[in-house]
Automatic annotation (TrEMBL):
InterPro entries on file: C2_dom, C2_domain_sf
Organism of derivation: Citrus unshiu
Domain C2: 1-107
Domain of life from the UniProt record: Eukaryota
Cited PROSITE patterns: C2
Signal peptide: none
Protein name as it appears in the record: C2 domain-containing protein
A single MF term (Gene Ontology): metal ion binding
Entry annotated with the keyword Metal-binding: yes
A Pfam family it matches: C2
Keywords noted in UniProt: Calcium, Metal-binding
Length: 153
């Protein structure tokens, strides 16, 4: 099993469902990879187009346990006085990217648009995301010498 870093560039979204009765939505994204989760800031923009330009990093193991090599991007609407609304989600399968990154040292999926799927299964809007993966070589710093352990600390 090899260790790597998966970097997600959350760029922009457009055409998302408007769940607010008064005014525009205030979208943010919860990005999940297996048990790890990152949350973006509320996007800048109005009138159906929003921008983040934020980077998030996830630690990945490949091949690893569980086998679910996918990023889930949950798009939410930030509300002040009520529970935040779910606008939809996009799923990005990254197994091929991870395999290529582990083999070549790095791999990249250039920025592209992914469809946003609402809770009822319909498509409504798109989110633009770029991905890169870097193989990380872990250096073992603890050495065991016949029951004695030497450490760099």
């Amino acid at each position: 099993m090899a260790i790597g870093l998966l970097e997600v560039l959350l760029e922009s979204a457009k055409g998302l469902a408007n769940t607010d009765f008064l005014g525009d939505i205030d979208p943010y994204v919860i990005i999940q990879y297996k048990t790890q989760e990152r949350t973006s800031s509320v996007a800048q923009g109005r009138g159906g187009s929003w921008t983040w330009n934020e980077r998030f990093t996830f630690r990945v193991e490949y091949p690893g346990s569980g086998g679910q090599y996918k990023l889930i991007l949950k798009i939410m609407d930030k509300d002040t006085f009520t529970k935040d609304d779910f606008l939809g989600e996009a799923t990005i399968y990254v197994e091929d990217l991870l395999a290529q990154g582990m083999e070549n040292g790095t791999a990249e999926l250039h920025s592209r648009k992914y469809s946003v799927v609402q809770a009822d299964g319909t498509y409504f809007g798109e989110i633009q995301v770029g991905l890169s993966m870097t193989h990380k070589v872990e250096v073992e710093t603890d050495r065991d010498f016949g029951g004695w352990k030497e450490s760099d600390f």
